[in-house]
Write a structure and sequence with these properties.
Length: 288
């Protein structure tokens, strides 16, 4: 089993080297954490672009062309992780002591069952951040939290490797991986959707789209900062927090006339916000 105390640098190959694989590969190459051997993508052209971005890695055409590596990162889309792991195992590239991991937030290390059957140690390590721009991620990765689960032998190597590029690890429960990822979706993807809904509402009220975003930005930034600093319940403001139910009712009717589907969303958030306001009231009871 490879371990972080070896003098020989551990070798890494990346299967499905898209945005996540490119950012991590570049960081590990620059910090000399791993020696990058091979990159396998669906197309040779995309693998060549990934190699150029990372500054290392030989392009191979298929799993059979992969050299034996200490560690394999399968950074494909979620629906291809198990398939690629099966192909890796079938190609005879794994042995007791190999490490195979993926970075999916939604799927657990159980997707790598074919590697486990070959005696490899498996894990999932999910960086909790957006990878829309790999270059930006590679330049600002320090402090990134990573949700980790899997075999102890794999995490014993991957934990220090992620620490070497500035990551902070949090252990998660394998059986709760889907719920864990749903939390990230609420915090990231659905936040973007809410910004879009707010912008649509401003535009429907007569505000230009570009100006609408400028109106949303300070509201969002200040609310988020207060929630992180004070906790969500204490940071809550607005008509529901004030008990101004008449305003809430008028807003609901206005949104319903504009977009019935969004009115349903407004109603659901109003109910959840009412619960949050109650928690705020309980935590800060009024004077007798």
């Amino acid at each position: 089993m490879p371990d972080g105390g070896q003098r020989r640098p551990l070798t890494l190959s990346i299967i499905g080297c898209g945005k996540v694989g490119q950012a991590l590969g570049r960081l590990w190459h620059e910090r000399q954490t791993f020696v990058l051997l091979d990159i396998l993508n669906r197309s040779t052209a995309s693998a060549q672009r990934a190699s150029a971005f990372i500054g290392a890695g030989s392009v191979v055409a298929d799993h059979a062309g992969l050299r034996s590596a200490d560690i394999y990162l399968i950074a494909t889309s979620d629906d291809q992780i198990a398939t690629c792991c099966n192909a890796l195992a079938a190609a005879g590239k794994l042995q007791p002591g190999s490490i195979v991991f993926h970075c999916s937030g939604a799927l657990s290390s159980l997707e790598l069952a074919a590697a486990t059957a070959q005696g490899a140690a498996v894990a999932s390590v999910h960086p909790i951040r957006s990878f829309a721009d790999p270059q930006q991620v590679a330049g600002h990765f320090d402090g990134t939290w990573c949700g980790s689960e899997g075999d102890a032998a794999a995490l014993a190597v991957l934990g220090p490797a992620f620490s070497a590029i500035g990551a902070q690890s949090v252990e998660i429960q394998r059986e709760q991986k889907t719920l864990y990822h749903a939390a990230a979706v609420f915090a990231s993807n659905y936040q973007v959707t809410l910004i879009d809904v707010a912008q649509q509402a401003y535009v429907a009220a007569g505000i230009a789209p570009e100006l609408a975003l400028k109106l949303i930005e300070p509201l969002l930034s200040e609310s988020a900062a207060n929630a992180f600093r004070l906790g969500p319940a204490t940071a809550l403001t607005g008509p529901i927090a004030r008990g101004d139910l008449a305003t809430v009712s008028r807003q609901y009717q206005a949104v319903r006339q504009w977009q019935p589907r969004i009115a349903e969303l407004y109603q659901q958030f109003a109910a959840l916000t009412t619960d949050l306001a109650l928690r705020k009231k309980i935590s800060k009871p009024g004077k007798p």
